[in-house]
Amino acid sequence: MHKATLDYAKQQDEFDELSIYRHQFHIPTDKHGNELIYMTGNSLGLQPKQTKAYINQELEDWANLGVEGHTEAKNPWLPYHEFLTESMANVVGAKPIEVVTMNTLTANLHFMMVSFYKPTKTRYKIIIESDAFPSDKYAVESQLRHHGFNDKAGLILWKPRKNEDLLRYEDLETILEKQGSEVALIMIGGVNYYTGQYFNLKRITELGHKHGSMVGFDCAHGAGNVELNLHDSGADFAVWCTYKYLNSGPGSLAGCFVHERHAYNKDLNRFTGWWSHNKQTRFNMRHDFDLLPGAEGWQLSNPPILSMAAIKASLDIFNKIGIKKLTEKSKKLTDYFEFLLKQLGEDTIKIITPENPEERGCQLSIQVLNANKALHNELTVAGVISDWREPDVIRCAPTPLYNSFQDIYHMVDKLKDILKNEIE
Length: 424
Ligand SMILES: *Cc1c(COP(=O)(O)O)cnc(C)c1O
Hints:
Blueprint: H1 6-15, E1 37-38, H2 51-65, H3 69-72, H4 82-92, E2 99-102, H5 105-116, E3 125-129, H6 134-146, E4 155-158, H7 169-179, E5 183-189, H8 201-210, E6 214-218, H9 230-233, E7 237-241, E8 254-258, H10 305-321, H11 323-343, E9 349-351, E10 364-368, H12 373-381, E11 384-385, E12 387-389, E13 393-396, H13 405-423
Bound molecules: pyridoxal-5'-phosphate.
């Protein structure tokens, strides 16, 4: 049984074999130099201390070698993306041929829909979760319009029931039983950004495939947070960013997964560029197009190496620990977080994230009775970096790489003080 004391939290940190990794990250500080309690690894992950050296390596090679760096750099730039593939595949539970790092997240979502949203006159609808991340909703709406469909009529929202926050699979089943023959694509956020609900990707995929639909996931809140097992899920595609739990810096490149069953399918329509062309003949320039197999066959451009260096710095840490061990610690951290929050009184605090550890990652979305943004501001002043989402939700994501049990203890302690002062 947990204890709501600082001594207990300290003890948990001493037992934790991953606690050493916190020192490999830059923890932001206040203006007096005190470390802040950083709970927003789900928004922008912290900087690994080794990132600077990885980027500097490429800056130096560029300075010393110029264009020759493409082949002569310590990590040659031509195949640089390949240095990320295996680690990235491990993080998301995929085979190397299924994974590539390229573009940015919403761009990848569009490129995937070019191939996997193939509407006909009668089967053209797209299902997304009603509280999807805005960029995802805008992207699927614009795909509908691009193909000449009405984006209201073509979009089916999978909604929570009245007075509920989480989505139920039975309701998705009902949608598909009624309209399954009209659905061309199911595109769901693998872990919902707002509630933190982690969906059963395999279950959704099987359901979609049974009704003849393609199935893809936006795993921005899943990659580096939960064991996604993308290959086993059977999903047709998935996309994710690397600047949240994968700590690769603001606006960094994104990941993309295409299931192995599509790896050699040259008939799938797609947008191509020279980076989707055979590596052996790419620089002969005058060859007819010769498609690369696997996820790499969706690349267009030679990628930004400085950003890839930051991804490599981060993935090397993930690789050392392994996503399994990380999620084990994550479950302990979030369990403790939930325990402490519940001590504040279930009439004051409601956690909308699922209670079942298999249905969530590290994030807890906390609804505080009668709260408004002032509460979030007070938390910030008290040194807690959290995330506010209208109308009344604070999202906190203690990440196993750099958050400690003491962080969690202090965060809840500060929240308790703020709530107490409000009542007095
Ligand atoms: C963070 C996030 C985005 C952001 O998209 P960018 O293209 O990286 O700006 C989109 N969708 C989801 C689900 C996200 O969590």
